[in-house]
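Re-run with default settings, no changes from the original entry. Doing this only to confirm the output is reproducible before filing.
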Amino acid sequence: MPPPLQEDQPFPIFLGPHRVRDELSYRLRQQSLLAEFSRTVLQTRDVQEILQRATELCAWGLEAAFAQAIEFLPGQQQLVVRASSGWAGNPADGVIFAADNGSPAGRAYSTGETIISNDLAADPRFELPRFLSDHGATRAINVLIERGGDDENLFGVLEVVSTGGGAFDQADADCLKGFAGLLGIAIERQQADARLQEALDYQALLTREMSHRVKNSLTSVVGLLRVQSRSAASDEIRSAIDDAGSRVATIAAVHDHLWRGSRIGFIDLADFLNEFCKKLQGAAGIHVIDCRADAMQLSADHAVPLGLLVNELVSNAIKHAYPDGSGVIEVSARKIRGRLQVDVSDRGVGLPEGFDIDQTRTSLGFKVITGLVRQLHGKLSFTSNDPKGARFLFELPILPERAKSSHTADLGHPSSLHGSVLPGRLRPGNSPAGGD
């Protein structure tokens, strides 16, 4: 404190040079610590870490032995210490006391006022808590911690306690209010984050439930189609119904992976294709389906049409690649330079001589493949396999920046592609068959 004013002392009289320097250094350190704490609040979202750091910097900035961040428990009308600094060997964390006028912190919370006491033992406004007196507390300063600056939504109290002489003043209170204001913002931000996360979790739950119910509904449709197939009047009708059931089952398989996946709206390509090929193996008879795929996340916008496309190409190979016996059908999916390459190949009889991919065709299989390629903004080309058979290579962009394609492909119009479209092993006049 400055020396008392003497009437005969010449002007200026208030502080000697060393006292000016001490006071200035004291206030500058407080501002520096407050700036450091601001960076801490911006750089971390861990409220407990922020509370702890606040108590450490407040004790240092006010040259005090102890500091603590105290939270109000509304259900119990109590105050509990959530973070503290300086209580070596006997931490104050978890200490609980009443939220009333019986303590400095309780009085600050109950009255909504800043409480400065420079003589705790003699202050008639409250009774000194036992754990403070046991540590030789002589003076204290308490300010409110308001959530986001809302004085009607209080978190608790920020308290600094000293065991030495001297006196806290309003400038110290203002410094402490700066720390408390930043604490309130950090606490409000955490609570807002928690509310947002809760909403996101609920939305994820609804999305998974929706995919699960879609999968179950489509599975029921597949079952109905199988029942209808058994009573079909001809093999041609039965084949068409079976093909429709296969396509619906493919969409159901995608939705099954969507609701079980770790990321909402995405499937793991490797898991999906491996499981999907196992299901296709059930319809392959004596043929063997060999599947290999890179592990990557694929959006639902890509997964449904891609699954349908693989179903069409594999089913087509099952029916036409090995007319006189069994054989292997290979399916692979690889991510190469931001594009997904799906390869379906066999070592069968190959394409018929003179096959023209640009020849007009009217089968449902051709329309499905054409629409799927257009929907995925990809291209489908074919080559002869070595030493024999056919190889179909489908490429599509998978970069996240690409605009999402529509969920529904227009299968009734010819596609406009940058590459070749392979309609399947269809000959002029062929009736629609599974996978064609």
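The chain is about 45% helix and 20% strand. The longest strand covers residues 154-162.
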